[in-house]
Write a structure and sequence with these properties.
290 residues, alpha+beta, N-terminal domain of MutM-like DNA repair proteins, Helicase, Ruva Protein, domain 3, 2 domains, five-stranded mixed β-sheet, four-stranded antiparallel β-sheet, 28% helix, 20% strand
Length: 290
Amino acid sequence: PLLYPHQILTTIVSMPELPEVEVVVQHLKTRVIGAIVETLAIHRADIVRTGHDLIPWFHQATITHVHRMGKCVVMTCQRSQETRYLLSELGMTGLWFFKANFATSPQHIHCHITLSGTKTRDLYYWNPRRFGRLWLFDSSGLEAFMQRRFGPDALAITQDAFCHLVQSTRGQLKPFFLNQHRLAGIGNIYANEILFRANIHPHAKGHQLRRTSCQRLHQTMQIVLREAITAGGSSIQDFRAPNGSPGHFQEAHQVYQQDGMPCPHGCSTLIKRLQKERSSFFCPSCQKKR
């Protein structure tokens, strides 16, 4: 689609969030669980943040599980009754593909895993802007990483725990959603969409929010995230599933990059971009601070 100048910056900095990473995990689960790692080749050493010395261990290991932690993909591998983990952070444009030709710039494939025992023979980590990272962990390393990096998962947190978390937050809700230490998985796109659908202003203070508003916010968060996963995520620029297919939830965005458009709730107000916040969008009439 044609982009107007004011839209270009937010398009460029959009990055995979919880729904997109969950889509990647779902695809990987159907194709690589049970596969044996024949080779694990790293083509850019600097994308491996920790665990360089563990790379040889993964040869002949079996992929037994794939799951998501926040915005990260975790592959669990076993060999000789030992367990290790390959964790990937997608960053802005990092993606896993089943075929090299799904990558528009093959020279930016930074990791290549060859597999046996399944129909899928290759797995490619494409990372053109080099913001994506890989970590190789043993069990204690993964647990320490989780505790250091992630708060409760946005898709798994209960309503009571979420309300307590929000109402103990003295800051604004938009930064709260973006802080992975407080709540893991949500980034700019879905923070905008969730707050709009819940009729809550991005600058609302968590500790000032009524209990009913917190409950509505939690319910809305669950609905938006699940709808986005079902739609294959949001493909605003680079995101594709491992089979090369784009997501379609961007077609359901109600406020993200919609400044100047009529409010979808039917009021007479136009969607606005928050002053001094180029990537925050809201309806001044519908979204309240309490």
